[in-house]
Amino acid sequence: MLTKCIENVRKKVPLVHNITNYVTVNDVANVLLACGGSPIMADDLNEVEEITSICGGLNINIGTLNINTTRSMFLAGKKANELGHKVLLDPVGAGASNLRTETAVKLINEIKVDVIRGNISEIKTLALGSGSTKGVDADVADAVTEETLDNTIAFVKAFAKKTGSIIAITGAIDLVADSDKCYVIRNGRPDMGKITGTGCQLSGMMTAFLVANPDHVLEAAAAAVCTMGLAGEIGWSNMQPGEGNSTYRNRIIDAIYHMDGAVLEKGAKYEVR
Amino acid sequence: MLTKCIENVRKKVPLVHNITNYVTVNDVANVLLACGGSPIMADDLNEVEEITSICGGLNINIGTLNINTTRSMFLAGKKANELGHKVLLDPVGAGASNLRTETAVKLINEIKVDVIRGNISEIKTLALGSGSTKGVDADVADAVTEETLDNTIAFVKAFAKKTGSIIAITGAIDLVADSDKCYVIRNGRPDMGKITGTGCQLSGMMTAFLVANPDHVLEAAAAAVCTMGLAGEIGWSNMQPGEGNSTYRNRIIDAIYHMDGAVLEKGAKYEVR
Amino acid sequence: MLTKCIENVRKKVPLVHNITNYVTVNDVANVLLACGGSPIMADDLNEVEEITSICGGLNINIGTLNINTTRSMFLAGKKANELGHKVLLDPVGAGASNLRTETAVKLINEIKVDVIRGNISEIKTLALGSGSTKGVDADVADAVTEETLDNTIAFVKAFAKKTGSIIAITGAIDLVADSDKCYVIRNGRPDMGKITGTGCQLSGMMTAFLVANPDHVLEAAAAAVCTMGLAGEIGWSNMQPGEGNSTYRNRIIDAIYHMDGAVLEKGAKYEVR
């Protein structure tokens, strides 16, 4: 199934509309190209509906939200819903400010979001109205561990049920769940947390996977998470002496560029719960 | 001639004012530094006229246009015209939304633009009011091929005549033309399309070439296209196993950093028609 | 002392709020992660006070200032002052436009700024109301050389006294001074000037150093300058044939990622005057 998911991206070259932050936007574009998709970034009120109309999916990321682009997110989201396009929300920093929390909650309430992808603290903030976010990173206190895994899976499924969205939580252990089924994924490396925007990159790429696999969105979301984590492992194995987080960023995107179904199928480490 | 064009950039260190998109802006700045120019980015209404005044050229790129920076483009463009500075327009995504198409057309009508540089779909949109842009990439249906070359050269010369601008179209075959003369350039690699912003980078660099070679602007524009394409070839030859589009981006800019007149003269593949 | 300064950053993982330009923002985030800090970027009026409250320090950079984010700089700066947080100002391009000069002066007047970090032309503009800035780069005429060193040290100490801020000037010779004491630092390489944003990166990193070393801010600022310069030397020594400014950017950040107290102590080249 994973094989099929990534191969469909390369075959269909899905065009993804991104309303995203200016910190990691270049990497998001390059990851979308690396996985076989095609990115377009547009956030002006006067074009977002039209731009989203020519795309297959919409990736909304609130990493550097501001009053203008927030309005564009709602406009584009509603148009995407109208057209039956896939919509992903990355609630970057939810919990770090009321503006972020409220914007994310309002987006979920007013727009049909296919996937919400964030770290555990962001998702807890949205689900429980609390969560101890430390800026844009998850708080250690919230971390998904083998000990908390059963409870977290139950929590994630419940939140998926409540929202009607697939919930994708990334961290040391990644969880991708709908109300019924949860992929528990153990790819990736802790060093990925030392690169800005691996989460944003994953959100962009995941949107392409959703668009290319409209009938298997849970699997597509899980495949995107496995692809990112596995690329983190492959990229790390290509590191040369003296290289650090900046080169690692390139090596991960490079690994996605070369990823195919066979490599993904072989390297993906997941179970379904 | 090409030798002279790039050497003039390194000798004169032209300061280029960029009003550009936030997706590829960092690469544009690094390419300008790599080729010997000096970049400044500024888009606020209250400073663009002053900033453009201290520069030699203005690079306008509508890749993530919005209502505020669009007004700045007109202000800066008019000031640059007043001062006799070189102006380049990169109509990113013209055809993908009315806002982009209309903004690009209005810029061409109200500002004297020395060069319009885009992909074939963007240029067709501006010239014919049509063109089948796929987001920010050219549509395959529009591609310049050996079969369509003669007709496309005639089209480009006619559009150059109509606008009074040099037209630079980049793709598998690149065309740089005024009303009379067309450089047909066959440098570059298809893999460059898998990197976000090689077009934006070229536009920034080309502006520096125009500023440094005010009396030979057609040759300067062609030299910039050859430099970018040849850097794509050299960068590719430096790729190591496992490297992909993200590292390729760096290797292309690195190749520009080391490019000199002799390398360019030897590697440039063009004919004049 | 330098050893302690960098080790404190890695131990305390200071959260730094950045209101910065969109050209170099990604590199600023990655450098902050490389040195052991944690970045958050936020510039909307409706969240900057809240975001800065959860951070330890605020890095204000006017590289692409605009009317909205300028107001956010004042709001965040005042809140940071209220909470006793460290504040750094990077007056990018002061002297290149009245808007930049006036904004920087107003920020210094209305906000208690712990460190002002810029190139010599920017600092001269702020101190003397003049200075021959060439865009965002220092003018050669202003350069700090062995001949002008004594006078420049006196000038910098006087400006530090007048403003009550530490003044950090980077260039061929770096100076970090309060009213009484000046670190003269000779790390770094001229090639660093061919990368966009090494100054912005240093400002972000320096803010983390200030936050992690609240009782030794002058030493912390000097340690950050030594770290950046030394990383420039180490990164350069790791360059492979054909690599240029784009890869060099990565190699510098990579070197910071691996920097520890022992390496810094050994490689730092400074005297106190």
Describe the structure.
The structure is a homotrimer of 273-residue chains. Chain A has 273 residues and is of the alpha/beta class. Chain A has one domain (2-272): UDP-N-acetylmuramoyl-L-alanine:D-glutamate ligase (3-Layer(aba) Sandwich), CATH 3.40.1190. Chain A contains 11 helices and 9 strands. In chain A, strands 2-1-3-4-5-6-7-8-9 form a 9-stranded mixed β-sheet, with helices on both faces. In chain A, helix 5 links the parallel strand 4 and strand 5 (115-118). In chain A, helix 1 runs antiparallel to helix 11 (261-267), helix 2 packs parallel to helix 8 (198-212) and helix 9 packs across helix 10. The two termini of chain A are 17 Å apart. The mean pLDDT of chain A is 96. Chain A binds chain B through residues 15, 22, 25-27, 29-30, 33-34, 38-47, 50-51, 54-55, 68, 234, 238, 249-258, and chain B through 21-24, 26-27, 63-67, 93, 96-100, 134-137, 194-197, 242-247, 249-250.
Q: Average pLDDT of chain A, to the nearest integer? A: 96
**Backbone shape of chain A:** globular
Whole-number count of domains of chain A: 1
Uncertain stretches of 5 or more adjacent residues of chain A: none
Largest sheet of chain A: 9 strands, mixed
Taking all Cα atoms into account, the compactness measure Rg of chain A is: 17 Å
* Residue share in β-strands of chain A: 5-15%
CATH topology of chain A: UDP-N-acetylmuramoyl-L-alanine:D-glutamate ligase
